[in-house]
Amino acid sequence: MYIDTVFTPLELVSRGDISDKTVVVIDVLRATTTIAYALSWCSRIIPVETIEEALSLFQTFDKNETLLAGERFCLKPEGFDLGNSPGDFTQDKILGKTIIFSTTNGTRTLKLAQSAKLVTTAAFVNASACASKVFKAKNDVIILCAGRSNKATKEDSACAGLIIELLIEKCVEDNVDFELSDAADISVKYFNYYKDDIAALLESAEAGKNLIEVNLEKDIKDCSLIDTLPIATEYKDGFIRSVK
Ligand code: MLT
Fold this sequence. Notes:
Layout: E1 2-6, E2 21-26, H1 31-38, E3 44-47, H2 51-58, E4 66-70, H3 91-94, E5 98-102, H4 106-112, E6 118-122, H5 127-137, E7 140-145, H6 154-173, E8 179-180, H7 182-194, H8 198-204, H9 206-213, H10 217-224, E9 232-236, E10 239-243
Helix pairs in contact: 5-6, 6-7, 8-10
The structure holds D-malate.
The site of D-malate has 11 residues, from loops.
């Protein structure tokens, strides 16, 4: 199993054909964390790139069964039901619903990964569930960090390192050969540097500082927890769902 980290979406093109690979999309603050929280209760998520696309797609769905969620500049767009705060995706609001979801970097990055054999999402909160799903597929793996505006971020790079550590553990246990790219090795070392205080890492990140500025520091705590959600996901045929 060859395991690689791609620190920014723009860099993905340098990896060429991804059709035989598993791609794990990470946007810790906050899209892929929110996806894990949401899929604890909702039936499926439809990631879309633009607000306009989200609003027009919403018109084609049953309004009683569907919600619009996402953010621009950290905040809920006008006309949306929910923003992108993981803690807002509670059972009473989203049980069984379809969520049309548009965020600045996360949902765009997911779209870039669409041609992979398996596309999944990860965050600190569902790291182990994601790693189990990825390991079972036995494909070569690209961990694709959403970053911010095509720049690498601390939080996604560190979470990539955690997922890789978990994959290495499984490879060792099951005698599966593995090889890390230089980028994968960097992300593992980076995770280990910060692993005892993920909340501090998130607070010191640019996206974390932006959330603090708009009084969303609670989101940082919700995004910093490790393995609180046993949710593995798959993005297939336009929908992200929780999978075994
Ligand atoms: C993104 O997709 O860029 C993030 O989810 C941004 C945010 O949550 O504020």
